[in-house]
Specification:
The complex is a heterodimer.
Chain A (H helix, E strand, L loop, with lengths): L1 E6 L6 H12 L3 H14 L1 E7 L1 H13 L4 E5 L1
Antiparallel strand pairs in A: 1-2, 1-3
Helix pairs in contact in A: 1-2
Chain B lengths: L3 E4 L2 E4 L3 H7 L2 H6 L8 H6 L8 H31 L6 E2 L1 H22 L27 H23 L5
Helix pairs in contact in B: 4-5, 5-6
The chains are: A alpha+beta, B mainly alpha.
Chain lengths: ~70, ~170
């Protein structure tokens, strides 16, 4: 499995990041908010885990939304 | 007062003519990304997918770059089209609203990157404290950063309405 990691950045709004996680990754409001806060305070969070091809698709879609997403083997 | 109001599947828009004039410049701004070889905005919008693995990152870019350029171009065209028709039809359909949210966010990233705002990402992860969100600028700040603030306020309004439409407030 591959982890999709989103990193903190000083520009994207917290509300926007939550909206992206809700609409793009299908996270609940609580999970999306938890991940956003983890990124804000810890600098990064694993927002999804999937086979490599699926994880790359998630990273591509997150890049389309302006989030700093990377991939790492889990 | 919010400039956006959710109404069923649509979002009603109430922008002043001056605001429409400002927003009409965004597609050109975004279309300029990557026009120069050392544009920091290009790097910010296209982060390395595999930090430390140049080969894998290049392959990821090769596979996704064309589609990403096309998707962003489609967002800009949709944004510009709905903006032009706003006086006659001040409404965003769901796909329009999502494109607006992305264009507003992309414009903020481009302006901030070109102004020299730290990009964040893996290189900044060891820096403490984690940089706070760029949500407010001091009075008299650089006009481009004030625009970043303004676009952020618009984006926050719109996202708040979209989340309300999903059955949850912000």
């Amino acid at each position: 499995m591959w982890n999709v990691v989103v990193w903190n950045d000083p520009v994207n709004l917290m509300s926007y990041v939550v909206w992206v996680f809700r609409t793009l990754l299908g996270h609940s409001r609580e999970e999306a908010t938890r991940l956003m806060l983890e990124i804000h305070h810890q600098g990064r969070a694993v927002v999804a885990s999937a086979p490599r091809e699926h994880a790359e698709l998630d990273a591509y879609r997150l890049h389309h939304h302006g989030l700093w997403a990377t991939l790492e083997e889990g | 007062m919010s400039r956006f109001t959710v109404a069923g599947q649509k979002v009603l828009v109430a922008l002043e003519p001056e605001e429409v004039a400002i927003l009409s410049r965004l597609p050109t701004l975004l279309g300029s990304v990557g026009a120069s070889w050392n544009d920091p905005a290009h790097d910010r919008l296209n982060p390395e997918a595999y930090p430390g693995d140049t080969v894998a990152s290049r392959e990821f870019s090769r596979l996704t770059e064309k589609e990403l350029v096309e998707a962003r171009s489609a967002d800009r065209e949709r944004f510009a089209d709905t903006l032009r028709r706003l006086r006659e039809r001040p409404v965003l359909r769901p796909g329009d609203a999502a494109a607006w949210v992305r264009v507003l966010g992309e414009a903020r990233l481009v302006l901030a990157a070109r102004h020299g705002t730290p990009a964040g990402g893996p290189a900044a992860a060891d820096e403490q404290p984690v940089v706070d969100d760029l949500t407010t600028t001091p009075p008299g700040a650089n006009p481009e950063l004030m625009l970043v603030d303004y676009l952020g306020a618009l984006q926050d309004d719109l996202v708040g309405e979209l989340l309300t439409g999903m059955g949850e407030g912000t």
